[in-house]
Design goal:
seven-stranded mixed β-sheet; binds flavin-adenine dinucleotide
Length: about 475
Amino acid sequence: MSRAGFQRAIVVGSGPNGLAAAVELARHGMPVRVLEAHETIGGGTRSGELTLPGFVHDICSAVHPLAVASPFFSTLPLTSLGLEWIQPPASLAHPLDDGTAVTLERSIEDTCTNLGRDAGAYRDLMKPLVDDWQHLISDLLGPLRIPSHPFTYARFGLRGMLSAQRLATAHFKGERARALFAGNAAHSMLSLDQLFSASFGLVLCAAGHAVGWAISRGGSQKLADALGSYLRSIGGEIVTGSRVESVDGLLDAATAVLCDLTPRGVLSVAGDHLPENYRRKLARFRYDVGAFKIDWALSDPIPWKAEACARAGTVHLGGTLEEIATSENAASKGHHAEKPFVILSQPSLFDASRAPAGKHTAWGYCHVPAGSTFDMTARIEDQIERFAPGFRDCVIHRRVSPPAELERYNANLVGGHINGGSQDVRQFFLRPTSRLYSTPARGIYICSASTPPGGGVHGMCGYFAAQRVLAGS
Ligand SMILES: Cc1cc2nc3c(=O)[nH]c(=O)nc-3n(C[C@H](O)[C@H](O)[C@H](O)COP(=O)(O)OP(=O)(O)OC[C@H]3O[C@@H](n4cnc5c(N)ncnc54)[C@H](O)[C@@H]3O)c2cc1C
């Protein structure tokens, strides 16, 4: 029982945060039921045959530095429940027009060998973060609070609060290091001249060294399945094919309802229970940018010009810092980049279970204005051709998912936003409101990526929401 007298909990949605919340409550002896709209569990960690039989694609997330780094997931016996992490030889490759690629290697020193005159500057930036990784990540993957390691956090914060453009140009002299950093920062879905965009670049580069950018053998679904199996093994219940239209009928004095939903989803299922001023705040929550995603079934590996790209699970296609900034700034301002920055994953190079023998899969997306209906297929594939001439000849089948398709698939992907809503300075710490996981209504909580620490597969939003339920706050 929680301190507020809750004797049971219902979690709406089985994304990584919903499952994490349910596991944490069940571990404390609370009966938990998860209600999931889809026929399968996992939210953003599902996989499926999106193109042709035998080709297994990650429908949303594909690459998992944050899941490996997650302080909560690391306490669970997921690897004994079917989850196997694969670490590609290089986390990331970033090809350039001279036919070479910068790579993010597991070791800082190996990465530095890519960076010419910026080797020392890169080492100075990364080494303190990687040396203090465990402390740093436990503070970063949590809500705003007094950091348990203030010195480490402050050192990170002073740089992370900058815009990515500012940090990259102030710290690095050459194109290679600037491009590498810009590509990582662009995962923020922010324009690279916005405050805090640098923090994403710092965390993702440091994660590449500290824990690697792993993929899951068999697809991201295996992570969801392992979480689901563990939940059931400790008494939790999961009901799929059960879309919640309203929390009426679920709520009573002894039941806490945790919504693995965006503010828009919370308004839809629980709006009647919430006071007007809080509803207004939820309605003001922003989802400025969306993703335009393509999954490919391929006859051959992607024919990269730079051989180093074949060693990497993830490839960043966008050229220089200036080009990436132009692409990201365009999406943030409501335009479609002529040369979009593309994030591409090529899991079948390292996991034969993803495609029939000799065949391959790839997953890629770029950022577009929220809700955009513009077809970016040609522009995305042009960027791949730029660094891998002959790519289109390898395509056997493609499945295109514009923002509206992503949102139809999962209501949490509002306008195609993949991180539960913008993570700019206004929505970085106080997500979705200053109440974070709690709401003014007794028994209603929010546990999705729209709460701190935000987007990505790490389960920490769910974990912290469950802590609130247990504490009755
Ligand atoms: C294209 C794409 C690529 C991504 N790539 C990565 C990546 O490589 N690495 C990474 O770490 N992260 C990535 N992400 C982000 C990551 O997937 C999300 O941040 C994460 O899944 C958020 O988890 P969540 O539990 O908050 O919500 P979700 O995973 O969105 O889960 C929400 C669940 O709630 C269910 N639901 C919604 N409404 C209802 C309702 N009314 N009743 C019942 N159930 C409901 C949905 O069906 C869904 O299963 C990506 C996302 C997308 C879309």
